[in-house]
């Protein structure tokens, strides 16, 4: 009867008792298959031993943590031991989208409008007003912009009478619609 | 995932869509909603003849007042005219007038103040008599009257 992989591996590692070892050795004399597996485990062990692999403490802990998570459904894998996976199609799509956004941004930034890519203010140069046409008649603009100007002062009128007469109060000041005023007009 | 990513890409541009103001649109709005106030100032004698007059006009917008200052040999009149465009396109004209009249015989000065709100149609005339209305007089006197008209900017026949 052949032995299982676990027992043969333990035999190669020298982890079995003397009696168990003698039992396996007597079996190996008559079983080529088991003898091949033992030889394979021996070669593997030698290669790992002399491979010079430097396993740091962190990697060892990560491996044991992953094994523990794989064998126990109740334990939760810590953040640093998780492995994040995105489907290749998703990653390719995100990459193309990122490149497109960057490309559009550069295109808009460096779009040639007859001027340099970056506007540099120069107070000595006249502002090219033809680049910003305003479809409003000039006289209307002047009247409208005058409102924003300092023309907030009252309109002053100096009244001059034809002779040396002066004004006298006739009654209280009066506001009314012209349509409602009939006397003297 | 795709919708969230699309939203994140559009998000930086939303404020410019909401709050962007074009100067041409602002000017066109002002041109459309501006008001033109025309004021004709007359000096009338006791017979009703106009002995002196002047015309002036100023552009304003709803809620912005236009001030007129009349000064004479012994008189100072300050008129404050504020138009408001109502929902039915009529204009509520709020007029405030202050009059200072000095006496030639003494150093006394009389001060009057009045304020009135009148709903008017565009182009309808409003009269302001800062010295009151002359009824009858045997002596030669002069009176001042202001004729005020408010036109919607685009309806002004002069523009």
DSSP helical segment count of chain B? 3
β-strand number of chain A = 2
Q: What's the structural domain tally of chain B?
A: 1
From the alpha-carbon coordinates, what is the Rg of chain B to the nearest angstrom? 24 Å
Strand sequence of the main sheet of chain B, in spatial order? 2-1-8-7
How would the global form of chain B be characterised? elongated
**What string, H for helix and E for strand, traces the elements of chain B in order?**
HHHEEEEEEEE
**What form of chain A results from the Cα inertia axes?**
rod-shaped
- Would you identify the regions of chain B where 5 or more consecutive residues have pLDDT less than 50? none
Quick tags:
heterodimer, A: 185 residues, mainly alpha, 6 helices, 2 strands, 47% helix, B: 159 residues, alpha+beta, 4-stranded antiparallel sheet, 8 strands
């Amino acid at each position: 009867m052949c032995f299982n992989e676990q027992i043969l591996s333990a035999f190669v590692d020298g982890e079995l008792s003397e009696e168990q070892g003698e039992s396996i050795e007597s079996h190996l004399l008559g079983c080529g298959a088991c003898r091949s597996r033992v030889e394979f485990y021996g070669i593997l062990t030698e290669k790992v031993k002399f491979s010079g692999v430097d396993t740091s403490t962190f990697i060892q802990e990560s491996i044991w943590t992953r094994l523990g998570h794989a064998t126990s459904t109740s334990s939760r894998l810590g953040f640093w031991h998780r492995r994040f996976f995105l489907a290749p199609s998703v990653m390719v799509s995100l990459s193309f989208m990122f490149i497109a956004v960057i490309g559009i941004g550069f295109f808009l930034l460096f779009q040639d409008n007859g001027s340099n890519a970056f506007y540099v203010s120069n107070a000595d140069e006249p502002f090219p007003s033809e680049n910003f046409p305003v479809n409003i008649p000039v006289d209307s603009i002047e009247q409208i912009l005058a409102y924003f100007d300092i023309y907030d002062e009252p309109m002053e009128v100096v009244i001059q009478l034809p002779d040396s007469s002066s004004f006298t109060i006739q009654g209280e000041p009066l506001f009314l619609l012209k349509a409602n005023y009939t006397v003297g007009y | 995932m795709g919708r969230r990513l699309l939203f994140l890409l559009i998000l930086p541009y939303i404020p410019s869509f909401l709050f962007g103001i074009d100067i041409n649109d602002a000017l066109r709005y002002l041109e459309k909603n501006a008001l033109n106030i025309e004021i004709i100032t007359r000096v009338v004698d006791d017979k009703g003849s106009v002995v002196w007059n002047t015309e002036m006009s100023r552009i304003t917008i709803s809620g912005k007042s236009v001030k007129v200052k009349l000064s004479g040999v012994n008189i100072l009149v300050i008129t404050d005219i504020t138009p408001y465009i109502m929902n039915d396109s009529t204009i509520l004209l709020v007029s405030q007038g202050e009059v200072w009249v000095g006496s030639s015989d003494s150093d006394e000065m009389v001060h009057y103040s009045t304020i009135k709100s009148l709903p008017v149609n565009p182009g309808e005339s409003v009269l302001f008599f800062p010295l009151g209305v002359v009824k009858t007089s045997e002596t030669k006197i002069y009176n001042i009257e202001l004729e005020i008209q408010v036109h919607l900017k685009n309806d002004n026949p002069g523009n």
